[in-house]
Amino acid sequence: MNLSVRKIVMSGILGAITILLGATGWGFIPVPTPAGHATIMHIPTILGGVLEGPVVGLITGAIFGLFSLLRPGAAFFTDPLVAVLPRLFIGVTAYFAFAAAKKLKSGPASIFAGVMGIAITAYLVYSSTQVYSTLTSAITGIVGVALTILLVYAATRWNLVVACVLAGLVGSLTNTILVLGMATIRNYLTFEVSVSIAFLHGIPEAAVAAILTVFLVKGIQRVRGFDSTQPQNGGLPR
User: Fold this and answer.
1) pTM for this structure?
2) What whole-number distance in Å separates Cα of residue 38 and Cα of residue 200?
3) Is CB count within 10 Å lower at the N or C end of the chain?
4) Mean pLDDT calculated for residue range 204-220
């Protein structure tokens, strides 16, 4: 295991951000869906995998899981197999999704970005019609279409955007599927309830994670002055 001082420090910083998001309530943001909000507490873990590699992603995920275990909440989060174990894989899957997507050529990347953007937009519009007004649904649709066009355009010029989107989606869905799956296996939730939670919470959280991962990675890249064309062995180039 390649665990440098840098990786240890980054794991600690990202883990601290995760705890801050949970302790202050800042880790939950409103979205126009029946759930009403989406958690972003797993975003630091996804960033750990993308920016620093799978080892940092795993360590940050462990910190996230331990915080969930110790923080009062749903009964099944007192079980480490539900609260901790699934979180170990968030940053790892995000890293491998990111690494694989960066190898896509612009054509396939653009198609993938377009399909993904349309699917997310359709879900958000449908969900918002169940709770909010027609005007809100229309605005949601317009924003979704604009983001889809932006993603497709970005994919033709900068594969990093698609890679970040996929990393955000995969990392977030890993959290949702593994946590709910383990809660079902451990008989805390029925299969039907788990599917309902995944649909109402998991999909909007994945969409939010995809968008935030793009902007955060791009912002961190600018701050660090990275050259995205250079090779690296644990995330983004240094």
Assistant:
1) 0.75
2) 9
3) N
4) 87
